[in-house]
Amino acid sequence: MNHRYGERLRILDEPFLLSLLARIGSPDTQTSDLPPLVRAAYTRLTHAVLDASFPVEQARVATRMAATEPRGFYQGPRLSRTTQLVVCSVIRAGLLPAQTCYESACQALPAENVRLDYLNMSRETDADGRVVGVRMDGSKVGGTIEDAVLLIPDPMGATGGTVVRAIEAYESLGGGRPRAIVAMHMMVTPEAVQRVLAAHPGVQIVTGRFDRGMSDDEVLATLPGTHPERERGLNDVQYIVPGAGGMGELLTNSWV
């Protein structure tokens, strides 16, 4: 989708993916229906991110036809076999998206070059239920991110706090400087985009949908980013509109 937030935001805006997201947010979709839909959405997001952000090398690979045909080789581009990929799994709603990214990446990359880290985070809310921050309660980080591509699958990019806090966590661990950091959202708000892009100049954001449903009609008639100061996607308790209405709670069947 065209927008005015710059090259670091990519809104896929694809009919198939948008159809998945519509089902994910539908009140008719139940807990048992949700995991395969989320997996399908994050499989597509993973392919898009690796195609755009992962280094590519030229390769010559024998096929099974090489046993009988001298020209039985594929010669052309493939994803780098030496670059490390690190997927950050943020407990709780990020668990299934991160596992999907990890498994999808391992289909194309050497398994020894792909790692799945865990950050245990939870929202902090005030007395009125508004999200006021993100608290990190623990981590399992398996090594350096030096020159790696770091993926942060955060399904609902509401305030941007999760992505900002995750990057800060890696920085505090002194794990090196990554080649690229990509935040991966099914849906993201203007508030989250503006916060993440301002806080971390090197971060890229890839999303299936840009949700700004709390904006006025004049703003909605323009390209995203035309009136950033007037674009809104969060209601008074920091839930995304149109969003998916508590997808994390539905995904885990844990309503806290």
If you had to describe this structure to a student in words, what would you say it looks like?
- The protein has 256 residues and is of the alpha/beta class.
- It has a single domain (9-252), classed as 3-Layer(aba) Sandwich (Rossmann fold).
- Helices cover 30% and strands 27% of the residues.
- It contains 7 helices and 10 strands.
- The protein has helices at 15-25, 34-53, 95-108, 161-173, 190-199, 217-220, 247-252, and strands at 9-11, 56-62, 73-79, 85-91, 114-125, 131-140, 149-153, 156-157, 180-188, 203-210.
- The strands form 2 sheets. Strands 1, 4, 5, 6, 7, 8, 9 and 10 form an 8-stranded mixed β-sheet that branches. A two-stranded antiparallel ribbon has the order 2-3.
- Strand 8 (156-157), helix 4 and strand 9 (180-188) form a beta-alpha-beta unit.
- Helix 1 (15-25) runs antiparallel to helix 2 (34-53) and helix 2 packs across helix 3.
- The radius of gyration is 19 Å and the shape is globular.
- It starts with 8 loop residues before the first strand and ends with a helix.
- 35% of the residues are buried.
- The mean pLDDT is 93.
